[in-house]
Design goal:
Elements (H helix, E strand, L loop, with lengths): L9 E3 L5 E3 L7 E6 L6 H12 L1 H6 L2 E7 L3 H11 L4 E4 L4 H5 L3 E6 L2 E6 L2 E5 L5 E6 L6 H9 L3
Parallel strand pairs: 3-4, 4-5
Antiparallel strand pairs: 1-2, 3-8, 6-7, 8-9
């Protein structure tokens, strides 16, 4: 998928929004997928993107966090963490499937299907320019920002 145009997609998002990729033309789009609202790793990741949001905006980038959680869960998470960007809900996994982030994971000795923590950067022309899969949270948002600044 790298260096190819990303098909348009829409997701219900926080703040009564519908996130539509085509509507972001001319901006860099950072889409990060995470397993679950209000869990330790996902909270830390969201906080890091929040803390660097001004720099992402200055670089012409829009951030969208995506998980399978409900809009109600997203709204609570967004409010509690004071997130300045929207969270999209992908309950039917259509966008998760588009980006191939659904994986079998081991949780307490059982195999479960879940979202692999992943981030994608789409350039101003809608072309996927970078992907990170199996993300480790510490320093990740800064690494993404550093890449966005090269576009």
């Amino acid at each position: 998928m790298l260096d190819t145009a990303v098909p348009d997609f829409s997701l219900p998002a926080t703040s009564g929004q519908t996130f539509n990729l085509a509507a972001q033309a001319g901006q860099v789009v950072v889409v990060y997928f995470y397993p679950k609202d209000s869990t330790p790793g996902c909270t830390t990741e969201a906080q890091q993107f929040r803390d660097l949001h001004g720099e992402f905006a200055a670089a012409g980038a829009v951030i969208l966090g995506v998980s399978r959680d409900s809009l109600k869960s997203h709204e609570n998470f967004k409010a509690k963490q004071a997130l300045p960007f929207e969270l999209g809900t992908d309950a039917d996994e259509a966008v998760c499937t588009l980006f191939a982030v659904m994986k079998l994971k081991n949780m307490y000795g059982k195999q479960v299907r879940g979202v692999e923590r992943s981030t994608f950067v789409i350039d101003r022309d809608g072309v996927l320019r970078r992907e990170w899969r199996g993300v480790k949270v510490p320093g990740h948002a800064q690494e993404v920002l550093d890449f966005v600044k090269t576009l």
